[in-house]
Amino acid sequence: MIEVLAKLGRGPVFLAGEVLECVITFTNPLSASSTSASSEMLAWASAQIHCQFHASENRVALPPSDGSKHDVQAENETVFVPNRGERGQCILSTPPKILFCDLRLDPGESKSYSYCETLPIDGPPSFRGQSVKYVYKLTIGCQRVNSPIKLLRVPFRVLVLHGLKDYQFPQDEAVAPSNPFLEAEEGLKKDSRLADLATELLMVATSRRSLHLYNISNTRGKVGTFCIFKTVYKIGEDVIGTFSFSEGDIPCLQFSVSLQTEESIQEEFQRRRGQPVTFSTHARHQEACLHTAQSSFSLPIPLSSTPGFTTNIVSLKWRLHFEFVTSGESAGNCLVRGSQSEAITWTGVEQMEVDTFSWDLPIKVLPTNPILASYVSQFSSTNNITI
């Protein structure tokens, strides 16, 4: 028996273009129940990253795949096929890397191997929507002699930040400040610069603030004013906005604000022509606001949510969805006098004519630092199997 342990040292979330590093440890454990321990032998082990795509048959019409070109060896259990048994199509994969050949482990002995691979910068982000799914996994294949291959799958999350692909790092490293007491491989140095560049780009894009004022009106007149200071956010931030109803002609009885994503299939892949888009609500604020001069809301963007993106099949956009309930009467008619005595009591009317209308405000949601997103990831940094 050999235990295989795979550990992502930095966490299970990465930016496209970063270097994924995984330490794989093979151990021949000592069994307390066994009287005679023996050495264990593995023929080989290999690792590969792949992205699996799955689409809902009811919503997405994909072109038929050419099954005749499928590798006939894929059905052979002695051939390393990382996505064997997975749903959907493998749309992206890195070249497989051999970790070792002919590994012998004595009882209680363990050996570790480091797997490093740059994540393709032009791939899609990790996404689990109602119509499509993009799932990334690192698959480690191991085989004993004359035995089927065993697969250890390590799922992880990929965030995509547009703009990194076009950035060119300086070729002359001699002019850059360096520490002569530290040794680092070129790939790791570039990976560190990439993460720093992404953090800087996100900070610049989401720190710009300017006052955006919107008049809220219906067919009968002005209801109020909405104010927001920015429309570009990172996942994990709060969307904050304020309302002013003091200058409105029409009394607002209630409002609600929903933070939503809009998942739409590109026209050429739609199952039905003109099929509606799919909306998902991530946060919602509702408030009764009759005779309220000002109000505000704060909606958190979940760290586990997917930033906006577009591929050749699906598009994901973010928006704020507003719903307003206004009175069909003037503000003074919303209360009635309940007593003629010296102590006057005002109560709400039993019935009232109301109008409802909605409004959508598009916003942009970008990724965040992958280390921060790792804290709430559903994936584990450590995965293991026994073979």
Please give a structural write-up:
This protein is mostly beta strands. Helix content is 7%, strand content 46%. It has two helices and 23 strands. The protein has helices spanning 186-207, 370-374; strands at residues 3-8, 13-15, 19-27, 40-55, 89-93, 97-105, 110-118, 127-128, 132-143, 149-159, 212-218, 221-228, 232-234, 238-244, 252-265, 278-288, 294-300, 309-310, 314-327, 335-337, 346-348, 354-366, 382-386. Strands 2, 4, 5, 6, 8, 9 and 10 form a seven-stranded mixed sheet that branches. Strands 13, 15, 16, 18, 19 and 22 form a six-stranded mixed sheet that branches. Strands 7-3-1-23 form a four-stranded antiparallel sheet. Strand 8 (127-128) and strand 9 (132-143) form a beta hairpin. It is elongated and about 100 Å long.
Task: Sum this structure up briefly.
With 387 residues, this protein is mainly β.
Which strand-content bin applies to the residues?
A: over 45%
Structural class: mainly beta
The proportion of residues forming helix, as a percent range, comes to under 10%
The strand count comes to 23
Q: Could you tell me the radius of gyration in angstroms?
A: 29 Å
Largest sheet: 7 strands, mixed
Question: Terminal Cα separation, in Å?
Answer: 6 Å
If helices are DSSP runs of H or I spanning 4 or more residues, what is the number of helices? 2
Task: Map the helices and strands.
Layout: E1 3-8, E2 13-15, E3 19-27, E4 40-55, E5 89-93, E6 97-105, E7 110-118, E8 127-128, E9 132-143, E10 149-159, H1 186-207, E11 212-218, E12 221-228, E13 232-234, E14 238-244, E15 252-265, E16 278-288, E17 294-300, E18 309-310, E19 314-327, E20 335-337, E21 346-348, E22 354-366, H2 370-374, E23 382-386
Parallel strand pairs: 2-10, 13-22
Antiparallel strand pairs: 1-3, 1-23, 3-7, 4-5, 4-6, 4-9, 8-9, 9-10, 11-12, 12-14, 14-17, 15-16, 15-19, 18-19, 19-22, 20-21
